[in-house]
């Protein structure tokens, strides 16, 4: 009986997640949802960005997702980033937030965000 109760509790807890997933067709829609004001994406993302997908984990204060930027804005965006030792990987830090961006296609960027809890 105790094992059955414990199993139910574990299943309930594993189903509880504070990950909020959203999709925005345009930068303007993401901006209206305050994605940039809340720090989930940096303000260096150009306003031409589209197909923005985010998965924000409120418990761990992290995020991952992707978006699309076409040329010439893609080259301008990359110029604002710092290259890492990995091919097509860059990072950007602002305050207590660090984003790692990967260029996975000619115009698709994936990212992860880690925030230092203060």
UniProtKB/TrEMBL annotation:
One Pfam family hit: YbbD_head
Location of the YbbD head domain: 18-68
Top-level taxonomic group: Bacteria
Protein known as: YbbD head domain-containing protein
The species this protein was found in: Vibrio chagasii
Upper taxonomic lineage: Bacteria, Pseudomonadati, Pseudomonadota, Gammaproteobacteria, Vibrionales
């Amino acid at each position: 009986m105790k094992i059955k109760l414990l199993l139910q509790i574990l299943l309930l807890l594993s189903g509880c997640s504070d990950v909020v997933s959203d999709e925005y067709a345009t930068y303007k829609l993401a901006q209206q949802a305050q994605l940039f004001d809340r720090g989930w994406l940096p303000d260096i993302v150009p306003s031409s960005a589209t197909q923005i997908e985010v998965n924000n984990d409120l418990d761990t204060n992290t995020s991952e997702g992707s978006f699309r930027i076409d040329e010439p804005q893609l080259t301008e965006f990359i110029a604002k980033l710092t290259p890492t030792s990995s091919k097509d990987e860059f990072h950007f830090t602002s305050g207590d937030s660090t984003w790692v961006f990967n260029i996975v296609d000619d115009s698709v960027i994936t990212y992860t965000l880690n925030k230092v809890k203060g």
